[in-house]
Amino acid sequence: MTRVAVVGGGQLARMMAPAATAMGVTLRVLVESADVSAALAAHETVVGLPGDDEAVRALLAEPRPDAVTWEHEHIPDSLFAIADELGVPSRPGREALLYARDKIAMRERLDALGLPSPAWRVVETEDDVADFLSVHGGAGVLKTARGGYDGKGVRIVRHPADASDWLAAAADGGPRLLIEEKVAYDREVAMQVARRPQGEVRAWPLVESIQRDGVCSEVIAPAPELTPELQHEAERIARLIATELDVTGALAVEMFQVGGRLLINELAMRPHNSGHWTIEGAVTSQFEQHLRAVLDWPLGGTAALAPVTVMANVLGGAREDLLGAWPGVPDADAKVHLYGKGVRAGRKVGHVTLMGDAVDATRKRAAEVAAWIRDGGDA
Ligand code: ADP
Predict the structure, then answer these.
(1) What is the pTM of this model?
(2) Where are the domains of the chain?
(3) Given this structure, which CATH class describes domain 187-375?
(4) Is a pLDDT exceeding 80 seen at residue 359?
(5) Residue 379 pLDDT > 60
(6) Which residue, 133, 4, 136, is CA-closest to 70?
(7) Most exposed among 94, 133, 238, 345, judged by the fewest C-beta atoms under 10 Å?
(8) Which residues 6+ apart lie within 8 Å of 312 measured at CB?
(9) How close is the Cα of 153 to the center of ligand 1, in Å?
(10) Does residue 63 have a cis bond before it (omega within 30 degrees)?
(11) CA of 29 to the centre of ligand 1 (A)
């Protein structure tokens, strides 16, 4: 039996389960409680938190997993230590994961590799912020180095005083802060690759990701009007990061496109929302590829299967009984994914994928189905 252990009970771990089943791999997941998203789908579950050593030992107990991987970045050192002690490879490893967890460490490393980032600096005082704003057009994006997600931990600042509460929190032992130039980008794109320990890297087509209120709402694959030059540049960046940072498994590089240039926004070392389209839209899904990569198995093909694939997130809205949406789904070609999560306003509770020939028409169809599931009918 081949077995992969996964830490985290959300939809990313959940969507590894069907891929594992198809591959004949057993998935054992460490979940926060017995009723979370991944617990309902995994082959084996252990209930506990990543900092709970007893639960981690149960996760890695005989029959011993061949590798342990993560669906989020918040992995305590104690977990890596137990995996080392028991001889279970951590993929990606602790050093690599630091760059997905800490935006200051990431920016320093990317600069050292000569890779393109927005202008940035660490800030500790209002004077630091004022200095930065005075040379970068009067507006900047203040970020917490750690702990942010879905736009939390990101704030636009135009005056040093806009940063005062976060600066005080940082001085008081809270997360360190950095400020970045506010990039006037044409669009946001994401490059996904996977790398196995042996060194093989495979890349999917570059995608466009559209955010609303700091949360990804739609992904278009490939990115409309993708040129070979842009794909090449995006792949160069992601391959270099995967190799130099010794990433194993899936890597998503979120970037800003400005004309023909790409600037790196952030890294995720796991399957990522911008890659959900690959489940139906590519030869190998990001979930299958992640498992193959962490097992150090040969990677699968990454070609897109349709001229356009659109993924639309379903965020929590009026409908509470999401399964009640099924009988009325207004498009037989829509692939609907529900994560088995309780509905809260704005929470990612599912997604819809549609494949087609034309970008606008496919986007419209995906958006209609996502809206129907969120709010439609008698819900
Ligand atoms: P999170 O870690 O919460 O995902 P991000 O760093 O990805 O935060 O930022 C969230 C959003 O804020 C981005 O998708 C982008 O729209 C905007 N943003 C972040 N950094 C910049 C920047 N330097 N210039 C312009 N917009 C930015």
Answers:
(1) 0.97
(2) 3-90, 119-181, 187-375
(3) alpha beta
(4) yes
(5) no
(6) 4
(7) 345
(8) 217, 218, 351, 352, 353, 354, 363, 366, 367, 369, 370
(9) 9
(10) yes
(11) 30
